[in-house]
Amino acid sequence: MSVFKRIFSKEKKQTLDKGLEKSKSSFFEKLGKAVAGKSKVDDDVLDNLEEVLVTSDVGVNTTLKIIERIEERVARDKYLGTEELNQILREEIAGLLSESNTGEDSEIALPEGSRPHVIMVVGVNGVGKTTTIGKLANQYKAKGYKVVLGAADTFRAAAIDQLQVWADRTDVPIVRQDMGSDPASVAFDTLQSAVNQQADVVIIDTAGRLHNKVNLMNELTKIKRVMQKVVPDAPQEVLLVLDGSTGQNAFEQAKQFTAATEVNALAVTKLDGTAKGGVVIGISDQFQIPVKYIGVGEGIEDLQVFNKHEFVDSFFN
């Protein structure tokens, strides 16, 4: 029985367990080798554990924090057996995630405040940005919220068409212009349409280019400025989508985008097809920006609100 409060539905929990299966199997296989033939946690075990965590994409800085915490426990308790290592790791990683501003929720919901709530979605091409928007739109709509999408990634015709497919699939209105149109103009029209329709939530797609940070910063700043002519506090949320399967590359993307704009929420996608689930732990710790959603499957419901307790429970159970 989980030591954590059961707040996920059984189906969601099963999806999370399955989505983390590759990461979990890889991690515990490495951990088994790291402690083979050892009965107590000593310097050799800690050195091996450090390598296990780094190669599981937890990240160097976060790994060093975890090792330091375990070293403190070894010093305090004088003796720790290797059979206790799983539980110790579980506790220390849960503690680390608790210190970062990371999710307690299990269901999608909008914060209290003015409407519409505007979410600007950023991230490089190929990370699952448009799919994340579609799945979010579906889940907000299922909760009874009125949703409007804005196709402000006007640099790729495919991006506009892909968002249109999701709008059709989820039966929510979309505001779009031709390829090459000014992204800020699309965002402006989207917010005006949302206000006129008394929408609850607006989700704006943006171009996924990272070749020039200055251009990216200028473009995102312009989109924000223009949106604020319609909704003064827009966007209330800047959601950065990262592809979890890229491991350390996701850290680099997070660095670039957090330098270019004020990101205040993260979504980590494609965790089900990879053994790199540890990246969620490192990104959550390093950037002190809440991981709000994780993608653990292909299905429309498989974008889950990230709950740190359930994540750790699934990873170590």
UniProtKB/TrEMBL annotation:
PROSITE patterns: SRP54. Part of the signal recognition particle protein translocation system, which is composed of SRP and FtsY. Belongs to the GTP-binding SRP family. FtsY subfamily. It is a peripheral membrane protein. GTP binds at residues 123-130, 205-209, 269-272. NCBIfam families: ftsY (TIGR00064). CDD domains: FtsY. This is Signal recognition particle receptor FtsY. One of its GO terms (molecular function) is signal recognition particle binding. It catalyses: GTP + H2O = GDP + phosphate + H(+). Its EC number is 3.6.5.4. It is found in: Cell membrane; Cytoplasm. Coiled coil: none annotated. One of its GO terms (cellular component) is cytoplasm. Pfam families: SRP54 (PF00448), SRP54_N (PF02881). It is an enzyme of class 3 (hydrolase). PANTHER family: SIGNAL RECOGNITION PARTICLE RECEPTOR SUBUNIT ALPHA.
